[in-house]
Amino acid sequence: MIILNSIKQITHKNILRYCCFLIALTLASCEKTKTIDNSNLVAIELETLEAKIISESGIQFIGNISSLNKEEILDMGFMLYDLSKDPQNPIEISMGKDAAKVGKVAYTYKAKTSFVVGQTYGFSFYIKTKKAFYKGERITFAVDLIHINEDNIRYAKIGQKATIKGDFAQLNGSYLVSFGAESNETATFEIGQNKSELSFIVPARNKNHGDSLEIYLLHKKENGLNQYRRKLLTVGLLGSVNKPASNTFYYTDALPISGLGIENAVEGSLKVLMNGKSIDYRSGLAFADFGPFKGNTIKWAIDYGNEVVEFEDAIQFKAPSLSHLKFEPNGYHSTGIIIIHDFDFYKYYGTVLPEIRVGTHKITNARFGGQSLIFDLKGISEGQYPLEFISPMYSVKSDMMIVLKKFALNPLPRKEVYHLDQMTLTGAFIPGQGYVLSIGQSSEIFEAKSATEIDIKIPRIPAGDYKLKLEDAPEQDIKILDPQFTDVSPKTVSVGQNITITGKGLNDVDMVFLNNYAFFPSHINGETIQIPIPYTVLPGKYKLMLRFNYNNKDFATNQYIEIL
Q1: What is the CATH number of domain 147-238?
Q2: Structure pTM?
Q3: CATH code for 2-141?
């Protein structure tokens, strides 16, 4: 029994020692690991403290040994984990067994390549003995030695090289520049020789002046997954206005502005400076929006928001020419008007007409539409004058002179007339020019046959007293009389002969009736008409009647014609 009890006691001791060894292994990853030795119940106590960043590839690991026991130490050091890969397969950094002493332990580790910016790493302090493995808690760290100078770029030009100042020693060829927190748009970059500058080309696709652009560093794993991004800075994007192909334009032309990022520039971010005005750029912005100008040579500039850039060459506005204008060679009256066709006033002057002068006389009632200008010549005396357009930009004169001639109407040759009477007016006229004649409600244009005469015809209007007016000449009294019948002869005729009807105001006779027989008369003048008696008319006595065009008025003569 004693032997059996001894055996049982030995077995229980072995089981107890084995359990203690298992407990020591389980607690190996705790911050303060207490592993109980098989022969000594006091475990080695250690902890992982911190990692100090020394350089882009250098780290100082610090741990602490609180107590040691009698276990034989085989090795001591740190475990380095790349948490983006397999955290169960760390790099073991050995310090050797001789470094195991109570107190703080530091080791400077130099990696073969730089640590990846944005990537998370881990490390833990360990001691390996003949009987156990002690490991402290795993602590994470990251190495980001990228430094951006405070006095860095605030703007970058679209499609051009941009340079960021700072410390970029940690970067290598495994990085790209990325534009946006989640963007797939990337670009390669260059690092300056002293590693204090990072340069890249700002993309141009879908980039507009005035936009903001976030610039990131992008690193990919070897398998292309798990992107690590690190924001560098945000810049404002600047477009670039091209130099105009020409510097000669019309006043109302749109500004010749084109270039990278300009067409859809953010509203209010790009301004045009001209003639003392600053106007936000927009599509269709025209030179006229900056008018009126003094002179037709204009300097201008672009305000990009960070700087003002003046164009080297000034804008030259095309001046109009009046050399092609042709006026009436026979001249005008001061009562007349001038119409100028085929002159595009808008492209030279916009919506504001220049000052228009005929000689020294200023025209105040000019109006224009499309490519035509209309104005009258009231108040201008006889003479020859150039036409002149005067504006702050340019003044131009016509080569051909405007000839002003006197207009006058002499007293009427007679005051009493009949419908369709012919009458010659005398005075001062322009040959070939039309003049408006008004009698009552009737108005008609008659052309002067010479410098002193105009043939007119009295209109078909009711008989009565009227005022005759020719253009702006003073009115004159005129009376239109009813037609009169005087006589018909012969009163006895044979078929085939003519009869002659006399009277006054017979110009308007449309038809002559002998009872029911109708005849179209031959007009000799206003006092004489004739009709032939055809062979179809039967012998007999017939009553004579006249029908006038005006209101189809019938005039009974009470005269009879006997046909044999």
Answers
A1: 2.60.40
A2: 0.66
A3: 2.60.40.10
